[in-house]
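Researcher: We're teaching a course module on how sequence relates to structure. For the next exercise, students receive a sequence and then see the predicted structure as tokens, so they can try to spot secondary structure elements on their own. Here is the exercise chain.
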Amino acid sequence: MRSLFLATALALWGLAQSASAAPVTIAPVALSPEFQTNVHNDLGDREGAYLADEVTRRVSLALTREGAEVTANAPVTIEITIIKANPNRPTFEQMGRPPYPDFTSFSLGGAELHGVIRSADGRVLAEVTKSKYDVFMDQFVQTSATWGAANRAIDQFARDMAAAYRAHAG
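Model: And here is the predicted structure for the students to work with:
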């Protein structure tokens, strides 16, 4: 009986949470002019597209967990810019250029992102900035992915954006 009550309470809580959040649109992720230049000249254009897709996907997941409905043409829009990002491993583009680095090469990685939650009339409802980079080489041990530290920064940014949205919507 107790587990039935708990299950019902959790289901109702989930319904109440999803019903209270308004629909939201995530605008296409932008790259800052400086980062776009770095992507084009050094990292490779496919890396910029990868990062933009990851930001959209992770922010969308975080918003959904907060009860938001991510949809096109919603009254609230989230605009996101990747200010800069550093890979932990050489990118595909970098691997193909002299001096031909080895994929076992590594560096301190991370990312800086900025997001704005905007109402239908263009008012800024909230802003979120996240800058997270590896500080010590031993942090690198946590990942073997090219964008491992940047992905951790994106995850934290996504949670912060979802919390800011929830604070506005709730």
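Model: If you want an answer key for the exercise: The domain at 22-169 is CATH 3.40.50.10610 (Rossmann fold). Helices lie at 2-20, 33-43, 45-65, 92-95, 148-169.
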